[in-house]
Design goal:
The chain is mostly helical.
Length: about 550
Amino acid sequence: MSPLLAAIVSLLMMYPWLNPMAPGPVPSVFPWLLSALLVCFAVIASASHGPRPAGSLRFGLAVVCAFATTLAWAALPRHAVASPYDWLALVGGLWLVALGGLLAWPSGGATNAANYPWAYWCVLWPWLAAGLVSCVLGLLQYTNHALSLAPWVNWAPQGEAFANLRQRNQFASLSNIALAALLAWCVLPRRKVERARGAKLAMAAALALPAIGNAASSSRTGLLQLLCICASVLVWRSDWRVGLWLAWTLACYAIAVLSLPWLIGLDPAAHGMFSRLRTGDALCSSRLTLWHNVLDLIAQRPWLGWGWGELDYAHYMTLYDGPRFCDILDNAHNLPLHLAVELGVPAAVLFCAACLWAVIAQRPWRETDPMRQLAWMVLAVIAAHSLLEYPLWYGPFQLATGLCLGMLWRGRPAPAGARGPALWPVLLAMLMIGACAYAAWDYRRISQIYLPPAQRLPQYRGDTMGQIQRSWLFQRQVRFAELSISSVTPENAAHLHALATELLHFSPEARVVEKLLDSARLLGLDEEVREHAARFEAAFPKAYAAWAARSGFP
């Protein structure tokens, strides 16, 4: 492969982390589609460098088995049927992981460009560049100097940093991925390299930047990930030089935690990491309350769960004995718990057991290759994040997971007589490009109803709702818009009641419940009104009080 083509692939892999655009109504859709399209282009570009190694077909078969098992279990009869969007989000995520794995697949000596292995170009350099650039952007946000870079850099209040990832824990995870890439490149290799003084200073500055970015995020998850990375490095290499570099990194993090708030005129004890560690979260918004509620939901339906995408509905419909998480709960903020509540305890146990077996069988503590060590560190970062949030619902983290699995899957070099690239990865990529193109067109079409009429595309300014009703992929987003702009009357009460009842499974927020109650009262469904009024009051007490006062509900 030529260095130019390798550099193009690196840019394709870097941009999903730096993308500043996330248009509504579902902010995660466009970044995911962009990630999928870019990895497809990278797979097609990389296919030109030579044949795939022996064993890549086994990787493909393993992916197919994972697809089939997941979809078969998710398709078992449950209380509610997932929408096409929920199904395709699940399938698309698995597909993106698979394409990432194929891209990072070790392809032997034919994949070298400018004396660097292929994994450097599609994994290490993109992660390193994206992480360091994002740390600079995060510090500009933190110090309120990012406004001049709009719209290429997202806005953040002074004292907060999340770069273009729009969430502090995701930014912290990217910072730690960049740190892991630096350690794999400069610290973990066992070859003895005499570095000049300038090179050592550059390395020290490079290690400091992700640590400072992590501190600016004020992410407790980021601190946990940082400690996991340091522990992993010490398991693989415990000599004093490595210890010095790790000590330097931790010192930079600690100094930044203390000094960053002070530099912008804030009290470190009341703002930033110290404040978050000391005060924690309010009872109704803490993860402990959230997990306690999820465990209650699991106990109600332990075998098959509530259904894929049904956690928010289950949370709304349940009246808990103890404290209640005070927001819409669409994810358990813990991957095993989320699988258990939506797919059932057996599915969660099988998934966790399979992951544990795979880790033990691979024996990561015995790894000696820095790139494989990098893959394990990044998987550890994503795993730690997945125990506290849901990074695997986002394209860049799905792609990173696939890249790591591709590097860790043990393959053999292509046979000596093999000629030309394997076609099936290209076919998979082309199929996904077609699916993403349709999804992007459909998403742009249905998003018009969420824009002011003057900002809509000319062809959608007249009868917008009528034109987008035919959407199949985003049908619930269309119906949500229809419900939001409709007033309940005796003539449409039956239609809006059915619509609101369906949309409780999509987004059980206050405006949906209000339309449900108003239409049910007009239809004389007194028992249903009492049932949902109790849940409305428990889930959204302020909105319930305003609705009750406005509607005269006793």
